[in-house]
Amino acid sequence: MSELVCVSDFEKEAFQNLPKNARDYYRSGAGLEKTLSENRNAFSELRIRPRFMRNVKTRDLSTTVLGTKVSAPIGIAPTAMQRMAHPGGECANAKAAEFHDVVFTLSTISTSSIEEVAKTAPNAVKWFQLYIYNDRKLTLQLTKRAEKAGFKALVLTVDAPYFGIRLADVRNKFTLPSHLRLANFTEELATSVTSTTEGYSASGINDYVNRLFDASLEWHDIEWLKSVTTLPIVLKGILTPEDAIIGADLGVSGIWVSNHGARQVDTTPASIEALPEIVKAVGHRVEIYMDGGVREGTDVFKALALGAKMVFFGRPAIWGLANGGEEGVKRVLEIIKKEFDSVMGLTGCSTVKDIQRDMVVHKNYYSKM
Ligand SMILES: Cc1cc2nc3c(=O)[nH]c(=O)nc-3n(C[C@H](O)[C@H](O)[C@H](O)COP(=O)(O)O)c2cc1C
Ligand SMILES: CCCCCCC(=O)C(=O)O
To answer: Would you say the CB of residue 318 lies under 6 angstroms from ligand 2?
Structure first.
């Protein structure tokens, strides 16, 4: 693993080693994957304006998120079915986050259960990502289990009433390998990720979600969620200030700017493009996080300069898992932290508060000169 020195190295290696069904599921985006590319390109369009002579001999990457101190403003986004990447799955991922003292977010659709993850990584800062099922009793049980297991926030994903068309999964007719289970569920719900339809939309993922997720959700359902949980609620998948304002008015604690790793609607903006206007609209009222295409320390720096309090990534942790399980994710986190530390020091920032809005501009700023 020592020859893997950046996230891109981990990605290439994971592509070699993962079975096609899993690799394509993890890698792919919706449609022709224009937004998938833009999530990366948009970071490259931004330029960092460094400042010097500011005593950066020691640097402190730490910050707080929803009142909890963490070692760095980076966290692991929820990604489903992680045991396809490594037998340790979500438990290994959470252990790595615990080791680095960063946030770990567990997906509803995990192959390790809420309780297993809590037991394996008792001291990790854990958040639970919630999908709302047609069966509200089941949804409530998930929420209560997360509370009981010590999870610190509920991340309600709002961008997935049903799932985008991911052509790779359609072509592969994605199914969950038969030795794995969706560990938060029993019986049919634990194993039924198989294609039941034929033809164009015949991916097991679309079929599962179409059958079970509540596509009728509206804003008033946030009131219901607030009434049944003691945990702070974060809305994940927000891409417009209009929706961010509604969420803030409803009293949520955080807005997570995201296009779901470009897996829902192709040609939505890159998350980093959507971030500034959302920060402008509600950044003074709630914490703002972002994910989508974060692969390097410079990306973390840019997102913070544009107003994010915390930056998450999904696929890099999967590539870490695929290259050595817990140790692989630890290494990925170490790399991104080291890169971020390097950028901070080399731009005159010794704490995250020193990262100012005017330190990042679009490259067009320079063409006007
Ligand atoms: C394989 C995969 C599975 C995902 N599963 C979930 C999920 O279960 N719940 C959710 O809210 N988002 C899910 N997402 C979206 C991620 O939480 C996150 O928004 C996205 O991965 C960020 O982009 P990045 O992978 O470029 O870092 C998934 C993304 C991927 C790539
Ligand atoms: C079997 C249900 C599929 C859940 C998929 C999780 C997810 O959000 C994704 O983007 O994939």
So the answer is: no
Which of 26, 28, 79 most suits a substitution to test ligand 2, by most atoms within 8 Å of the C-beta? 79
Tell me the whole-structure pTM to 2 decimals. Answer: 0.98
Q: Mind listing the pLDDT tens digit of every residue in the chain (369 residues)?
A: 789 999 999 999 999 999 999 999 999 999 999 999 999 999 999 999 999 999 999 999 999 999 999 999 999 999 999 999 999 999 999 999 999 999 999 999 999 999 999 999 999 999 999 999 999 999 999 999 999 999 999 999 999 999 999 999 999 989 899 999 999 998 778 877 776 665 555 577 888 888 899 999 999 999 999 999 999 999 999 999 999 999 999 999 999 999 999 999 999 999 999 999 999 999 999 999 999 999 999 999 999 999 999 999 999 999 999 999 999 999 999 999 999 999 999 999 999 999 999 999 999 999 977
- How distant, in Å, are the alpha carbons of 52, 85, 95, 240 from that of 99? 32, 20, 6, 35
Residue minimizing CA distance to atom 7 of ligand 2: 80
Q: ipTM of the predicted structure?
A: 0.99
| Tally of domains within the chain | 1
Q: Is 184 in the pocket of ligand 1 (CB under 6 A)?
A: no
**Inside any domain, residue 337:** yes
Question: What is the Cα–Cα distance from 33 to 36, expressed in whole angstroms?
Answer: 5
Active site residue 284: no
* Radius of gyration for the alpha carbons in the chain, expressed in angstroms and rounded: 20
* Domain containing residue 22: CATH number: 3.20.20.70
* Residue 79 annotated as part of some ligand binding site: yes
368 occurs within a structural domain: no
Q: Which domain holds residue 195?
A: 7-355
Tokens of 336: 């991104």
The Cα–Cα gap between 120 and 128 comes to 15
